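stuck on this fold:
=====
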Amino acid sequence: MPEKNEELVRRPVLNLRTILYAIAFVLIFSLTCVELGLVSEQLHKYGDDYSNYGSKQYKHILGLLLFSVIVSLLVMLSHPFVGVPFITVCSLILAVFFGTAAGVIWQNTGLFWKGTGCRPAESIPENWRPFARECGRVVTIQAVAWSLFGLYILLFVGTLIHKLKIRARPTPEGFYYNV
């Protein structure tokens, strides 16, 4: 027991949980940086005018993605200083944001690709033709958003398991059967 003047020094413990959390945070941070670059490039390239985008919904979902990416970066950079309940709530909220954005992009741009390749520009609607040459980039934005959605769901479940102290416990003898 430390004396009154001594500080408790918290040392990191290397176990499976800390390794998985470290991997999750590195993956989320890396994918968030990738998404920030892709989304900001699209918004910078096409500007603020609705006529430059395939639909208003696509422009607004890029704005939601930009907001989600900024919040995600703030959460990732501040996670050593905040508690597990805050990370749990933020991971649920960000999972909803990234899942919504990925779903809306999939709904809007599903006409870009056929199988594993992109369709020719002549086969897609007129308002989306400027984006035909950027099919790979738009699909990558959607794929990274789906990846962040999945990682945040895993982080949410992991932090819930940690916070609620869910673990395997032995079944008492005679509970399900007579001995």
Q: What stands out?
A: Strands lie at 113-114, 117-118. Residues 16-163 form one domain.
